[in-house]
Amino acid sequence: MDIRVLQSSDIPHVQQTNITNLPENYFCKYYMYHAMSWPQLSYVAVDVSRPQKTPYDPPKIVGYVLAKMEEEPSDGVPHGHITSLSVMRTHRRLGLAEKLMRQKRAMAETYGAKYVSLHVRVSNKAALALYRDTLGFKVDGTEAKYYADGEDAYGMKMVLDHLK
Ligand code: ACO
Question: Comparing C-alpha atoms, which of 144, 83, 74, 70 is closest to residue 111?
């Protein structure tokens, strides 16, 4: 499995992966906005076990993390935000999400982020275990009815100072 920076040609495949795995979906231009504005922050996991037969074969994207810098941070502290993360069912529990999430050094080094934030459904046990137990995020609060279907979100944060 290859973990590499998101390229604009990956976007339709990343969008498909997102639609397959999550109810929070985005227009193509929002992916493009991430890729163009913060090119070092979003990554894909590509299954390279089946080589491309022709240069026109699409890459087999099996996971992604879409990340950005918060443009107008309400606390005035520069920080990054994980917009979306998912891994295809066929490729889960192989450590891919952890690897994708560990690529955040550029947030601190390139953009001066002091911490990274994200939202996660309170019922999402797998993602909570990943963020809290594996990666060291802390729950910062609960946002009531954050999601379109009325579910609450945990706001989570992880300090990035130690990466510098
Ligand atoms: N149950 C409990 N703990 C889990 C689970 C699970 N199903 N999946 C992962 N973890 C935890 C474990 O601690 C695991 O370590 P271990 O395997 O050594 O026990 C650790 O996370 C790392 O697991 P990975 O293999 O890196 O995780 P994976 O690649 O399977 O992806 C993910 C995890 C992204 C949550 C995946 O299940 C998924 O795509 N789910 C659907 C989409 C989703 O919920 N995305 C997050 C939404 S929040 C957001 O986008 C900001």
Answer: 70
To test the pocket of ligand 1, the residue of 17, 62, 66, 85 to mutate (highest count of ligand atoms within 8 Å of its CB) is 85
Ligand 1 atom nearest 86 alpha carbon: 39
Q: ipTM for the complex?
A: 0.98
Instruction: Locate 52 and state its tokens.
Output: 């491309």
Q: How many helices (H) and strands (E) does the chain have?
A: 5, 7
Where the chain has pLDDT below 50, the residues are: 164
Q: Report CA(93)–ligand 1 centroid distance (Å).
A: 7
Q: Whose CA is nearest to atom 14 of ligand 1?
A: 130
Q: In Å, how far from its chain's centre is CA 125?
A: 17
**What pTM did the predictor assign?**
0.94
Ligand 1 binding residues, C-beta < 6 A: 21-22, 82, 84-87, 92-98, 118, 120, 124-127, 129-130, 133-134
C-alpha–C-alpha distance, residues 17 and 108, integer Å: 27
